[in-house]
Specification:
Length: 341
């Protein structure tokens, strides 16, 4: 729907059949876009409910990680990314919306209420950001292009800050500390049988249809990286070159508190950063291993000089434009993540 054809806000409240149908289509499209958001192990731990002119976002208990994410920290962050995708989609369709986060503390699984308020003018940057949703992808290969430039880094930082979260770019010495913490986290988790079983469930042949990480997204052999990436317990089908990610820039996405509301904001910031990176041709890879353990999460806080609480580590850089993009991870059908009854 274009701004010229969008209904007047009073029509939204009046609920005329034409307006109701147009809004229902826009909300459904927003949920479809939200379903493309990144999530821990591609669990897609969100469930939406559409009622009239609003959407409600909930954690889906069946798609949570009991071992790697017992407090649903990363699941909530993932849902924040989905929320931001939905916001971007609605704005690009010419709708203004108000978001209430954690609307009822007595029901913490209810993460957000998104209320459509009426039409909004659509500008080119909003359209470009919405288009980036379908282009965004996860690339676990070593970075093959030059180091990300200062202008690109500033654009990503501004996108993060616009969502009420901060980004701390690590110095060379701090990257070594990050690598040490990541190595410790991976070795600890790989010796935990329950953790291994959970990872195998979401990355093996038994993962639920439409979710999990397929072999096409898992490196065919361990990549050469300064900061070790996720060890999935088996090799995949993603071809890996002989390069090393020496040009990578690492940063910590952090907030000033460490509660579910902050995790939700961090997910929105991740989405904003990743869509911005996609628009400007940069590569972004979230690294969560050091966030999954209390000890290494504390080590990340030390790297922040204790000015904030770490929510996620990001690897930033560029790739060779001639390199083929990895396949997109599978997605659940929209009718499985939305309840409009």
């Amino acid at each position: 729907m274009t701004p010229d054809s969008a209904p007047h806000p009073t029509d939204v409240r009046a609920g005329s059949p034409a307006v109701a149908a147009a809004l229902a289509a826009a909300l459904s499209a927003a949920v479809a876009s939200a379903g493309l958001a990144p999530s821990i192990h591609n669990t897609q731990p969100w469930q939406w409910r559409m009622t009239g002119d609003s959407l409600d976002l909930h954690l889906e208990p069946s798609r949570l990680l009991d071992v790697a994410d017992p407090d649903a920290r990363l699941a909530t962050l993932s849902c924040g990314a989905a929320l931001h995708h939905a916001r971007v989609s609605l704005a690009a369709q010419g709708w203004r919306a108000t978001v209430t986060r954690i609307p009822d503390p007595a029901h913490p699984e209810h993460l957000a209420h998104l209320q459509a308020d009426g039409p909004a003018r659509v500008d080119p940057p909003t359209v470009r950001r919405a288009q980036a949703i379908r282009l965004r992808h996860t690339d676990r290969r070593p970075l093959s292009g030059p180091r990300i430039g200062p202008d690109e880094l500033r654009a990503i930082t501004r996108a993060v800050q616009a969502e009420g979260t901060s980004l701390h770019v690590l110095s060379r010495d701090q990257v070594i500390d990050l690598a040490t913490a990541a190595d410790h986290a991976h070795h600890t988790e790989l010796h935990e049988a329950r953790w291994q079983a959970e990872l195998a469930y979401w990355t093996g042949g038994t993962r639920p249809t439409g979710t999990g990480i397929p072999d096409t997204a898992i490196p065919a052999r361990p990549p050469q990286t300064t900061v070790p990436g996720r060890d999935f317990g088996h090799h995949g089908d993603l071809p890996i070159g002989d390069g090393h990610d020496r040009t990578a820039t690492f940063a910590i996405l952090y907030g000033h508190a460490d509660q579910p509301l902050d995790w939700l904001h961090a997910g929105e910031a991740l989405s904003a950063a990743w869509l911005t990176a996609t628009e400007i041709g940069a590569s972004l890879l979230p690294l969560s291993a050091t966030i999954e353990m209390i000890s290494t999460r504390q080590a990340m806080r030390v790297l922040l000089s204790s000015v904030g609480y770490p929510h996620l580590v990001l690897r930033l850089g560029t790739v060779n434009p001639n390199d083929a993009r990895p396949d997109h991870a599978p997605r659940l059908p929209t009718d499985q993540i939305i309840d409009s009854s």
